[in-house]
Amino acid sequence: MSGNKRPVKGKRDKRKSKNxxxxxxxxxxxxxxxxxxxxxxxxxSLEVEAGHAILAFLQGNAARRLTPQLASNRQxxxxxxxxxxxxxxxxxxAVVVQTxxxxxxxxxxxRPLLQQSKEAALVLQRNFRG
Length: 130
What we know:
Layout lengths: L13 H77 L5 E6 L2 E6 L1 H19 L1
Pfam families: IQ (PF00612)
């Protein structure tokens, strides 16, 4: 009967009180760390979101500034390829030119020149073979 004594209210077992005190302290430390980690995570995510917003804003401004420059570069490339095409037309060479301007592709094939070159090749083959 002496082993089954119920604890009296208000009095605690000494071993239990030591363990519960250290458990309480440990639990409190864990909650503090959890709260700090949560605060840091939210602060960090807010900073990251702000950083992303700033980068997007700056990239948008840079894109707005660069758009006319890119357009002028494209125009220059287009004009250069067109002038080369004119030179090739004048030199009567059979060419296939692809130029890209604003995403559209223009293909120019000079069929008569190709036909002439094919006929010339056939004549050469006939003469060579005898």
